[in-house]
Amino acid sequence: MVLARRAAAHLSELCGKLKLIFQPAEEGTRGAAAIVSAGAVDDADWFIGSHVEAPARLGEIRVCAERFIATTKFDVNFTEIASHAGSRPEAGRSPLIAAATASLLLTAIPHASQGDTRVSVGLLNAGEGRSITPAHAHLEFEVRGSTHEANAFMASRAIEAVRGSAAAQGVRSDIRRAG
């Protein structure tokens, strides 16, 4: 908003076309693609992006050319046969345990040497009741890297962790890139 106010106050000093775009779905990595697909930046000679996290005080505009991290988001569905814990626990295999194991392994992936990296497990849904081995579990997570190479490294290691967790528990996993 500070930039918009300053531009409006100095409009007579500016030349060319000024567009202020507030990106939807920024954190989900889908907003920029929608803006570009809609043609909003087709006639731009220069494009300057901003993030609300930039460390600026009220009324201040700051430029931060670092700390932006590539991201890959994943949705995973684990499935198997449900069973009752009291009467036949051996009849089922637990997608919940596979998803929980994957969550722990994901956060333990060693960082890449190609730059700053992160893994964030944000959602785990599973279970129908206390005494039932669930038939389904859903896990959502993302990996990030300060370079394309670091992000790709983390993504490949994450897929290995998910597949290994599923194999260890004897359940199926369907891994999809989200967004």
Automatic annotation (TrEMBL):
Keywords associated with the record: Hydrolase
| Source superkingdom | Bacteria
The cross-references to InterPro entries, in alphabetical order and at most eight, read: Bact_exopeptidase_dim_dom, Peptidase_M20, Peptidase_M20/M20A_hydrolases, Peptidase_M20_dimer
All copies of the Peptidase M20 dimerisation domain together span 74-152
The region annotated as signal peptide is none
The record's section on Pfam families has: M20_dimer, Peptidase_M20
Query: What PANTHER family does this protein's entry cite?
Result: PEPTIDASE M20 (PTHR30575), PEPTIDASE M20 DIMERISATION DOMAIN-CONTAINING PROTEIN (PTHR30575:SF3)
Q: What is this protein called?
A: M20/M25/M40 family metallo-hydrolase
